[in-house]
Amino acid sequence: MQWLPDRYSLEARVAPIVVLLLPLALFGLVAVPWYGISLAGLGSVPTSAIGVLTFVTTCCVVLASHIGRCGRRKQNRLFESWGGPPLRRAMRHDSDRDDTMSWDRIAALLEVRIGTPRPTADDEVNDSVVADKVYADFENELKQATRDHKMFPEVARENRSFGFRRNLWAMKPWAITTGVLFILGATGWSFWGPVSDRPLFIATAVGMALMTLWWTFSVTPDWVRDAADAYVVAMREGGLRLADAERVEQRKAS
User: Fold this and answer.
1) Is the pLDDT of residue 195 over 80?
2) Using CA atoms, how far apart are residues 243 and 68, in angstroms rounded to an integer?
3) Which of 44, 169, 185, 207 is surrounded by the fewest CB atoms within 10 Å?
4) Is residue 161 included in any domain, yes or no?
5) Tens digits of per-residue pLDDT, 59-107?
6) How far apart are CA 46 and CA 51, in angstroms?
7) Number of domains composing the chain
8) Can you state the angle between helices 172-192 and 15-31, rounded to 10 degrees?
9) pLDDT at residue 34 is higher than 60
10) Pair 212, 172: CB distance under 8 Å
């Protein structure tokens, strides 16, 4: 069904929104009275659960495209701090990777496919702007050539992983801000709310504090870069498969 989100959208856009909204969902479940309503086939369902589910679903639908744009905007800042897009850097002569021979083979294939010679090491130094444009074309061609998810499942998997981490990192300021606010809310409720609710709200505040610590210390540029490096490795393997297939075709033709 075309109106359903694809797997990339679910894992890289919707899933980060769900993670972002977890503190709010948790607070709503414990703060809203559990008045039950009867639903056919489900029995009595608490209104708080229905409200939280409706809210999270609505946010996922509304924010899915926005979070992708936000992630791509902040991605440029990451790439600048890394010295350029990871896939593009892997193709350069000045790459510090230990798989440069593999990328030489891939670059040779891409030269033929797009009809543009690969920049030399001197080109990269003397005219880096033009060289970067050529590598951008190489990058786009390689992405297009490995877009078939059935033939290159590892590329699709690592691309989703990178998108998920990048978008989470893009939302980090919002996540920490809302986490702190809900920690304060749950803590205040535990002190000034009904005594019977105190243990529940203390546990909620502790859970939110742990989530906020995870956002603070785990969702970092290095965490995103790990996924980016894994994506580059997957693209390398896909590119080598294309190069091998091209070599086989050339032998058959000769």
Assistant:
1) no
2) 32
3) 44
4) yes
5) 767 677 788 888 999 999 999 999 999 999 999 998 888 899 999 999 9
6) 9
7) 1
8) 10
9) no
10) no
Place of tokens 């989100």: 5
Token pair of 45 as six digits: 């369902």
The answer to whether position 198 is within a domain reads: yes
Q: Which domain holds residue 248?
A: 7-82+146-253
What is the chain written as a DSSP string? -TTS--HHIIIIIIHHHHHHHHHHHHHHHHHS---EEEETTTEEEEHHHHHHHHHHHHHHHHHHHHHHHHHHHHHHHHHHHHTS-HHHHHHSTT---S-HHHHHHHHHHHHHHHT-PPPPHHHHHH-HHHHHHHHHHHHHHHHHHT--TTT-HHHHHHHHHHHHHHHHHHTHHHHHHHHHHHHHHHHHHHHHS-GGGHHHHHHHHHHHHHHHHHHHHTSSHHHHHHHHHHHHHHHHHHHHHHHHHHHHHHHHH-
Are the beta carbons of 119 and 131 closer than 8 angstroms? yes
Q: Is residue 120 part of a domain?
A: no
Tokens of 198: 């105190």
120 Cα distance to chain centroid: 33
Asked if the structure places residue 104 within a domain, the reply is no
